[in-house]
Design goal:
It comes from Rosa chinensis (China rose). By secondary structure, this protein is mainly beta. It is built from four helices and 17 strands. The relative contact order is 0.15.
Length: 313
């Protein structure tokens, strides 16, 4: 390298920072936050929250919001030996074709080097929130979406008329739950519909305790199997608990799959989930775990906790 090829590298200046921005005005009093000027348009713009096992991507949409959920044991497939015993023979064939200059044939033969395709991670599902049509007319200048890195809390705020709406999302590690609090600055102004869905094969129902129970299964094979060769995949359950506050607030059950909240002051959603996964060597069909029982037990142990208690890390 010649002297003229050297360049001066300097630390980035404040003007170099691109939104979303990191804000730390006063280290003694101001929290560290990542801020956004509007709802996410792409998955990479959504805010992640999680506790190591459960996670969610928060988009911050208005008037509809989606929390995309995951649980770290949800995979397609079953334990097995994915090595290819014929790989050495295939490698010899590929090498000979390359030596002979038959590159197209070598590329085609190289497919034989691979074993069975590896299985893939699966998403748990979605929490869907649908607010009143009046939220379409929210004041854009009042909108804020942020990730508070000090408290690991995603927060969305905006105003419709003289009412400010706030949504807070965080994941507790000690209690293994994803928490959402929705509130309105004016009493009786919070109305919305909430549902729990999944792209996996599943069924859902309400249990009479303001809870949605979703039970599903992951594919036993990543590639669509023959009907008579479809092993049982990992089973999973997610339970969404709904609690509201306010003298006029009511909860209605819709289609035995979703809830409608009307004229509440605030609402708290608790999401717990479990699966039949035991370890990397146990087939889902041999697992003795009951994800529905485990999820309901976990929820019952925390559903009376205060938000302050759930925030304790």
């Amino acid at each position: 390298m010649e002297d003229g090829d050297w360049v001066l590298v300097r630390p980035p200046a404040e003007k170099d920072l691109w939104t979303p921005s990191l804000v730390k005005e006063d280290e003694s009093s101001k929290p560290l936050k990542v801020t956004f000027g509007g709802p996410a348009k792409f998955w990479t713009d959504a805010i992640p929250i999680g506790n190591g096992r459960l996670g969610a991507m928060v988009w911050g949409g208005v008037p509809s919001e989606t929390l995309q959920l995951n649980e770290d044991t949800l995979w397609a497939g079953t334990p097995g030996n994915y090595t290819n015993p014929n790989a050495p023979q295939a490698l010899t064939e590929v090498r000979k074709l390359v030596d002979d200059g038959k590159y197209v044939e070598a590329t085609e033969a190289a497919v034989k080097l691979s074993g069975d395709p590896s299985d893939v991670y699966q998403l748990l599902g979605d929490i869907n929130l649908e607010f009143e049509d009046s939220h379409l007319k929210y004041a854009e200048e009042t909108y804020s979406r942020e990730l508070d890195l000090d408290t690991a809390t995603a927060r969305i705020k905006y105003s419709v008329g003289d009412v400010e709406y706030t949504r807070e999302h965080f994941a507790s590690n000690p209690d293994q739950v994803i928490v959402t609090k929705i509130s309105a600055s004016k009493s009786g102004s919070l109305s919305f519909t909430v549902s729990l869905d999944s792209k996996m094969h599943h069924g859902s129902h309400l249990n009479g305790k303001n809870q949605i129970i979703l039970e599903g299964s992951c594919p036993g094979r990543r590639i669509a199997p023959k009907y008579n060769d479809n092993p049982e995949g990992i089973q999973f359950t997610a339970v969404l608990d709904l609690q509201i506050s306010g003298d006029k607030g009511v909860i209605h059950a819709l289609d035995d799959k979703k809830f409608r909240v009307e004229e509440a002051d605030s609402a708290v959603l608790l999401l717990v989930a479990s699966s039949s996964f035991k370890d990397a060597f146990t087939k889902p069909s041999d697992s003795k775990r009951n994800p529905t029982s485990e999820s309901l037990t976990a929820l019952n142990s925390i559903r009376n906790f205060s938000l302050r208690a759930l925030r304790a890390y």
